[in-house]
Amino acid sequence: MSDIIHLLPDSIANQIAAGEVIQRPASVVKELVENSLDAGAKHIRIVIKDAGRTLIQVIDDGKGMSATDARMAFERHATSKIKTADDLFALHTRGFRGEALASVAAIAHVELKTRRAEDEVGTLLKIAGSKVESQQTISGAVGTTISVKNIFFNVPARRKFLKSNETERRNIFTEIERIALVNPDTEFTLIENDVQTLQLPAANLRKRIVQLQGKAINQQLIEINEQTTLAKIHGYISTPQFARKGRANQFFFANNRYIRHPYFHKAVMTAYEPLISASENPNYFIYFEVEPDAIDVNIHPTKTEVKFEDERTLWQILMVTVKESLGKFNAIPSIDFDTADAPDIPIFDPSKSTSMPKVSINPNYNPFQTSSGGGFKPSKPKLDWEQLYKGFENEEKLPSVSPDTDTNLFQTSHSLQGDSVVLSSPEHYQYKQKYILTSVKSGLMIIDQHRAHVRILFDKYLSQITNRKGVSQRVLFPEMIQLTSAEASSLTEIAEDMEALGFELSDLGNNAFAIQGIPSELQNVDAVALIHSLIDKNMETGSNIQEQVHESLALSMANFTAIPAGKSLSEEEMLLMVNQLFACQLPNHTPDGKSIITVISDDEIEKKLKG
Ligand code: ADP
Ligand code: MG
Fold first, then answer.
1. Given its phi and psi angles, is residue 258 left (phi above 0), alpha (psi -120 to 50 degrees) or beta?
2. Using DSSP, how many helices (H) and how many strands (E) does the chain show?
3. CB neighbours of 414 closer than 8 A, spacing ≥ 6?
4. What is the 8-class DSSP label of residue 358?
5. Which distant-in-sequence residues (6+ apart) come within 8 Å of 602 by Cβ?
6. Of 376, 201, 231, nearest to 314 (Cα)?
7. What SS3 class is residue 518?
8. Partners of 312 in the beta sheet?
9. Is 76 within 8 Å of 171 (Cβ atoms)?
10. How far apart are CA 607 and CA 605, in angstroms?
11. What residues does 135 pair with on adjacent strands?
C-alpha cells in the first residue's frame, strides 16, 4: 500500500489559510483599507461592484511600494510592519501577520498598481489564485490601488456561503463605519455600482459621528474624557432622553481598534440605569487607550474580543466616568415613565366633592325565582359578536363560538389543542393585569396576556406578509426617519415585506425616509421607533432565508404591538383574546418558544389544600 500522507499543494494551503482572514467581501475591504491607513493615506476611495462579489477596489494616496516590495507583499508572512516576535506583542493597532494580501491573492484575481513619491514609474502586478501572472512598469499617481475581482472564484464552497447582496453590503458598511470612527481625519468615499453612497470628508470625531449617524445625533452627544494611570477614556455618549428601544449605536474601541466588550457595556448601562427604562438603549462611542501590554492582543485579525488587564478597575472607572458626564450635562433623573402602557390609577382630587356610593335595590328581587318573567335576572354580559370579530371574518381557523349555549362552557383537551376550546360564556378573571385566569374542565388555566397577544399577532402578520394582504393607512403628516447607511441597507432588505404589511416609505435620499403610510391596524404606535426596531432586529438576525426574514419581521412587529403586561382588559377583550389564541395552530407557545398557557389541575389544587 502506498503512503497516504502527503503535503497539500501550496495553492490549497493558501486557500485554507485565507479562510481564516477572508470570510467575505467585507473582510477584504477591512484588510485593504487598514493597509492604506498604515501607509499613511489621507484619502481612501472604496469601489464596490455587486456587493463586492465582482469587484472590491481600494484607492489610496499613501506612500506606495517599490517594485520589489509590491511583489513581496503577496508572500505569506510578508510584512513591513514587524521584525521580531516582540513587535507582535507591542502593538498599538492591528495584528500584523503579513497574511492579508497573501490570503486575498489566494482566492481572487488581484491587480495592484502602486508608486512611491521617490520613484519615476510605478508597478502593475497581476495575480490570480496566488500565481503572479504579470508585472510591468506603469505611470500613475503616488499611492496604491488594489483591485480584487471575483472573490472566491476558485473556492465555490465559500462563494456559496456568501449571503444576499444586501447582507454583504451591510457588512461592508459596518467595517467601513468602524474604521471611519477611529480615523476621522481621513477622508473616505464609497462608490457602489458606480453610485457614490458614502462621502466622509476629514473631520473631528464629533463631526465624523454626525456624518455617519445623521444630523439628529449631534444634539444628543455628550463628551466624555477621563485620564487615569490605567487608561485614557474618551468619546461621546448620548443624553438619556435619546435612548431608544431596540439596538442603538454602541461602539467600543481599544487602541484604535473596534472591540466588543459585553462587560464594559454593563458598566455603561449601569451608569444610565436610573435615567432610562430597562428596554431602552443609549448610543455611545467610547475609546480606550491603554498601554499595549495591558491588553491581551488577540492577534487574530478577524476577532473583535479583547481582554484587558485589570478589567474590574476599568469597569469602575468607565461607569463613574459615564455617570459623571451624564450628571454634568444636567441629565439628572427626569424619568419618563411610559404612561401609555401603565395601568390606569384614578387620581384623587380633594377639591372635588365626593358622593356616597349609591346602592340601588331591586324591590322585586326574589332569590328563589329562577324562571324568567317578572323578577330581577342576572344578565350575562352582552357581547357584540359582530363587533368583536370585525376584521377576523376571513380567518379560516376561527373556532366555532356559540354565545348562547350553556353547554360546553370550557372544553379543553389535555394537550390544550386550540380546536377543542370553545368558549361560550365568559368566566374570566384578570390577575395582576398580566394573566387571564379561567377555569377549564381539568383545572385552572393561566394565560399570559402579552404572550398570547404576541402569538395571535405573529400569526396574523406572518399571513399578511406571505399573502401580501396588509392594508395601509396613509398618514396625514408623514414623519421622517433618518437612518445610518448600514440601517438603510438593512431596510431595503425588508422593504418589500414591510410594504406587504402596510408600510409605505419613500426614499428621501441620504438615508432618510418619509413614513407615508402604516399598517391600518396600528393605532397610536411610535412608527419611527417601530421601524427602528424592525431594522435592528433584521440586522441582528442577518438571515437571508426568506422564511426566516418573514418570521423575524412578524415577530418583531408582534412584540412591538402586543398589549403589554399591566394593561387592564375588559371581559370582552379577554374573551376575544382567548378565542383568537385558540384559533392559532400553536397556542401553547410564542413563536420564540415561551410558554403562553399553564393549567393547574384540580388535583394539584386539592392536594395543596389538604389538611
Ligand atoms: P500586514 O499589513 O500585516 O503587514 P499585508 O498582507 O496586509 O500584511 O500587507 C503586506 C505588506 O504590503 C505591508 O506590510 C505593506 O508593506 C505592504 N502594503 C500593503 N498594502 C499597502 C498599501 N496600500 N500601501 C503601501 N504598502 C502596502
Ligand atoms: Mg495588512
1. beta
2. 17, 24
3. 442
4. P
5. 442, 443
6. 231
7. strand
8. none
9. no
10. 5
11. 125
65 lines ligand 1 (CB under 6 A): yes
Contact 56, 25 (CB under 8 A): yes
Nearest ligand 1 atom, CA 104: 6
- Quote the CA–CA distance of 509 and 495 in Å, as a whole number: 15
Kind plus residue range of the DSSP H or E element containing 309: none
Q: What confidence tens digit (pLDDT) does each residue in 211-244 have?
A: 999 888 998 999 999 999 899 999 999 998 888 8
> Which residue matches cell numbers 502506498?
2
Q: Nearest to residue 292, comparing CAs of 322, 257, 333, 262?
A: 257
Residues in the chain: 611
**pLDDT per position as a tens digit, 411-447:** 332 233 343 344 444 468 899 999 999 888 778 889 9
Ligand 1 centre and the CA of 521: distance in Å?
Answer: 56
Q: Is the CB of 519 under 6 A from ligand 1?
A: no
Instruction: Flag the least confident range among 339-343, 408-412, 487-491.
Output: 408-412
Mutational test site, ligand 1, from 14, 101, 130, max ligand atoms within 8 Å of CB = 101
Orientation angle between helical segments 546-561 and 527-541, nearest 10 degrees = 140
Contact 439, 429 (CB under 8 A): no
What burial class does residue 593 get, using C-beta atoms within 10 Å of its C-beta: 0-12 exposed, 13-18 middle, 19+ buried? exposed
CA 1 from centre of chain? 56
Query: Are 544 and 166 a contacting pair, CB within 8 Å?
Result: yes
* Chain CA centroid to CA 509, Å: 22
Q: Considering only CA atoms, which of 223, 202, 182, 195 is closest in space to residue 44?
A: 202
Neighbours of 265 (CB within 10 A): 16
CA–centroid distance, residue 337 to ligand 1 (Å): 54
Amino acid occupying residue 582: F
